[in-house]
Amino acid sequence: MRWLRHSSSRGACHASSSLLASTRLMASELCRLNQTFPNLLSCAPPLLLGEHDVSLRLERAIKFDYGVADRLSPLVRRVIANNPGPFTYTGTGTYIIGRGHVAVVDPGPADEAHINALVVAINGETVSHVLVTHTHMDHSPGCKLLKTYCDAPTYGFGPHGGDLAESSKVEEGADRDFVPDVRVAHGDVLTGDGWSVECVHTPGHTSNHMCFCLSDERALFTGDHVMGWSTSVISPPDGNMGDYMRSLALLLERDDAVYYPTHGPPVWRPRAHIEAFIEHRLARERQIRDCLQRGVTRIVDMVPIMYKGTDRALFPAAARSVLAAVELMHARGEIRANGAPSIESELELWYPSREQRR
Ligand SMILES: [Zn+2]
Fold first, then answer.
1. 3-277: which CATH topology?
2. pTM of the full predicted structure?
3. How far is the CA of 42 from the centre of ligand 1 (A)?
């Protein structure tokens, strides 16, 4: 069956909440998911608080068959795993770079059917590199299965960072078993047979998130850092809004022609997309300031206002991203809390005097 999702709409969308486990869903179930989470999969109208428009133009059109390799460019193919869900959209897209001697980007979940499909797609070819953008369960566990077919080394920034006990409640969960065979750093270049890849460290979604740029096509594999179908979940403590904003700004300095996210279709207007994402996060900050000025002092009470129109099941995940924004504003000295900010803590705007600013 050929899958075709075609929609492009404005809405305050947010991939979030592991309240719904990401399970395999057939077409009818995807439709049900779409009905259950209309704000997630088809986008709600813009959410407004005061004058702050947090809407985004998202691109969601994607045509594919599960388990079938699609050629996206002379050097890039993609196989999508059958793991659709609130975080993964239609599923994890595993990319194949090159011809003959290839690199694989994000083998995906521990799904034998997906790895088998990948192996069929590269039948007769040799895998020389396995690149991992980060260590969420829908990205890196497939490395182990792929190792049974090829002994190519894995490349990544490092094992999962920090304590994700809290954030794992609303994310796909962390793959704590994965350790890359080769640790790569920002600026490293990996060279294969007929292609080369530059490593671009982009912490924020996770601290170990790495994008990979296929220099031959100016194509950046953006993992979960930048996606066309949704914003990224930034869930403290491993997720960090300050890092995320810096990593967005970093991409503005580059000259990439296209992004290939792990979920959803390619992003063909990278600069406009990044600028919109930055503005979206700044609008969220303005919403938080508005809430505090109106006496709404706890994140748990801000979320229903900021995410009005969104399914309440997604509020816990939304609260994680609001917490990430509050942490950044707290670090800048704009918000005060009794101790470190949390979902439940009382917050207040802080207007330091001229003397205190010194
Ligand atoms: Zn992720």
1. Metallo-beta-lactamase; Chain A (3.60.15)
2. 0.84
3. 20
